[in-house]
Known about the structure:
Layout: E1 3-18, E2 21-28, E3 37-40, E4 44-51, E5 59-62, E6 85-91, E7 96-102, H1 106-111, E8 115-121, E9 130-139, H2 153-158, E10 164-167, E11 170-171, E12 174-179, E13 183-189, E14 196-200, E15 205-210, E16 213-221, E17 224-226, E18 231-236, E19 244-250, E20 262-272, E21 298-301, H3 302-308, E22 317-318, E23 323-328, E24 335-339, E25 345-346, E26 357-360, E27 365-370, E28 377-383, H4 386-391, E29 394-400
Parallel strand pairs: 1-4, 3-8, 9-13, 12-20, 21-23, 22-29
Antiparallel strand pairs: 1-2, 4-6, 5-7, 7-8, 9-10, 10-11, 13-18, 14-17, 14-19, 15-16, 15-18, 19-20, 23-27, 24-26, 24-28, 25-27, 28-29
The chain binds CU-O-CU linkage and copper (II) ion.
Amino acid sequence: MPTLAVALEARETDWVYAPGRRLTGMGFNGSIPGPLIEARVGDTIRARLTNSLSQPTTIHWHGLRVPAAMDGTASVQPSVEPGESFDYEFTVPDAGTFWYHSHVNETEQLERGLYGPLVVRGPDEPTLDADRVLMLDDLKLDADGRLAPFGDEHELHEGREGDVRLVNGRQEPELAIAGGQVERWRIVNAANTRFMRLSIGGRPFSIFGSDGGLIAAPVEATEVLVTPGERVELAVGPFAESEVLELEALPYDRGRGEPRRERLATIRVGPTKASSASLPDVLREIESLTDDGSETTRTVSMKALMHGGHGQRDEDVRVGELQVWNLVNETSQDHPFHLHGFFFQVLDDGVPAWKDTVNVPQKESVRIAWLPDNRPGEWMYHCHILEHHAMGMMAHFSVVA
Ligand code: C2O
Ligand code: CU
């Protein structure tokens, strides 16, 4: 199997996020988002992180089933100090849309752009006319157009949302698509806090992938909620030549802030081209890990997590023992729960899919099932609202053999 060598240098970057507008960002190899890493299932990725920032950093490979030691968290490696480097090496067992991002001082480092996309392709991918990654984000600026200061109490609790909406590091860009064609859009929500309830000019699209690659069968929709950390894959189009559509985030009430409808990008449809796109009715066999009736093995209280602070530990899980977790959210805001290193299935959910991040709505609970495969070590879960994570809304646990 091929080995892919990638060099990722984290450094301060002059970030032109709109014509004539710039700020000092942090980018991998000077680009925001960082370079697209493309691999095939079974490849080995050897990534050297060089830290040219003036503060420590690491890389977490969000969604990849890496060995514990490669997970990029403080419990498995010392942070990479300025001027130092670290070699990550792992194979990629699953096809899908993933992303890599800093796992140190995340509220600032991700806001400043220290993240990038990683796509793994499998042997049986649906054929669409184009394949693109859209990393969604936002920026919070002060009145003078500089990055607003980080991490006051209020922001930690409410999350950080800004008025500048970004697609692939650019403010409300124009996207060109050929008339008559159907594209594969791999969408990543890389924002600190902003929930994105996506609409593409109100037109129907097919959802056919989520965090862990293809879902069992495509689902037709006109909107889809993507919370921080989550990914969706959409079949978008066909549109008629010279149409102009908006990619928008529709109002969504996450229990904080004022839900509003906001533009993310403008889509311009160019001259019509032939299409060879075809999305099969059945994409993949996904066996359910368990049925809805199965007993809960652990309850995770979002409220306790939120008030627990750093260093909280949850009980060990044993390799091969089915986990059925009830994520209970007694708080008055939504929390996107992210499990490192393992995929889970959301019970009571209809179409089977593999997920690593799931929104637990305010005053509701969500049950998930997952099976720890043989990768013992230190793992964690946390809220992917980065300010909540920073506040300590997280827990470590061990997977033991
Ligand atoms: Cu993308 Cu620990 O997270
Ligand atoms: Cu949260």
